[in-house]
Design goal:
Length: 330
């Protein structure tokens, strides 16, 4: 799947810091993502969700249970202006309803909803359409981080009545109950957790109406900017993905986008990217898909991706993933 959504480096930084204590270099976790150590220092660190998910995939390959641990560390302060708006909300209910208005700012890969069932409120997370290999990880990260956000807003733990996951019980299922401190159900209809409806009216200890109005307005503007950038980036990726075997170059792509090469370069720089970065990312995504077909020769894959020589493709793939195409295929 080709991602046009933008996100920040918060989750990536969290992954790196989590493994840093174990002595693992950032290079192993950043492999194939197109993110450099220098990118971590940018003041406006925008990346695509595919870059973020590549780092997460590297982390899951090392520790399959890492989703829950990362979720516990995703505090509300990781969400920028949205985090401030949530903390200054009058009640937990107000904060959650605001968060669900801006999924792009929340950085979620799920459709999040609040559903009332009698005296219980279910916060559900469904319609996941990302990498199947990261489905369990993303579900764990999503629900655990949303629980932590609720705890931060309340200034105390939100007592859950139950949590459910659509996936079967993983090998690390013993970590679930102590993490959520409630009964856990697997192989459920969807993902979600439940709490008493009365919690929605609980006042936030950091509520401030003046700050909240200002931050909510900032969120509205930032969301408009985000969605505009996402649509623009999505169009670029769509054009490039359709012509990987004969990439148009920066000038050609600019003509297709009906702008100057200078404007296109500037916009990509503002996103922390470049024409070559996007081309490499799309080629890498497509290469991984094609390598899943064992009957397709590597030289044919190289041709489909626009490489004049198979050796050039092999070198590029090693740079993207850290392993040769043949190694990746096995």
């Amino acid at each position: 799947m080709l991602h046009s959504h933008l996100t920040t480096l918060n989750a990536v930084s969290l992954v790196l810091n989590t493994f840093k204590a174990e002595g693992l270099s950032s290079a192993a976790l950043l492999a194939g993502s197109g993110i450099s150590p220098a990118d971590l220092e940018r003041s406006d660190p925008r990346i695509t969700t595919s870059q973020e998910m590549q780092v997460c995939a590297n982390a899951v390959a090392l520790r399959p249970e890492i989703g829950l641990e990362l979720g516990k560390r995703m505090h509300v302060s990781a969400y920028g202006m949205l985090g401030y708006a949530l903390l200054s909300s009058a009640t937990l209910g107000d904060a959650l309803r605001l968060a669900l208005q801006y999924p792009a700012l929340l950085g979620t890969l799920f459709d999040l909803r609040l559903e009332e069932h009698g005296e219980l409120i279910w916060l559900t997370a469904n319609d996941y359409n990302d990498s199947p290999s990261l489905a369990v990880f993303n579900a764990e990260l999503c629900l655990m981080s949303m629980k932590v956000i609720c705890d931060d807003i309340l200034g105390r733990p939100l007592q859950l009545e139950g949590v459910r996951f659509a996936h079967p019980a993983p090998k690390h299922q013993a970590d679930y109950t102590p993490s959520f401190e409630c009964p856990v159900e697997f192989n459920a209809i969807g993902h979600g957790f439940a709490f008493s409806k009365s919690w929605l009216a609980h006042a936030s200890p950091l509520a401030d109406p003046v700050t909240h109005r200002a931050m909510a307005e900032r969120c509205r503007r930032e969301n408009t900017e985000y969605t505009g950038r996402q649509a623009w980036l999505g169009r670029i990726r769509q054009l490039l993905a359709a012509q990987l075997n004969a990439a148009p170059g920066l000038e050609g792509l600019a003509r297709q986008m009906k702008c100057s090469a200078r404007t296109l370069r500037r916009h990509l720089q503002e996103l922390g990217s470049s024409y070559q970065d996007l081309l490499d990312e799309l080629r890498f995504e497509r290469a991984k898909q094609l390598l899943n077909n064992d009957e397709l020769p590597v030289y044919r894959i190289a041709e489909e991706l626009g490489f004049s020589e198979t050796a050039s493709f092999r070198h590029a793939f090693v740079r993207w993933s850290g392993v040769a195409p043949s190694h990746f295929r096995t």
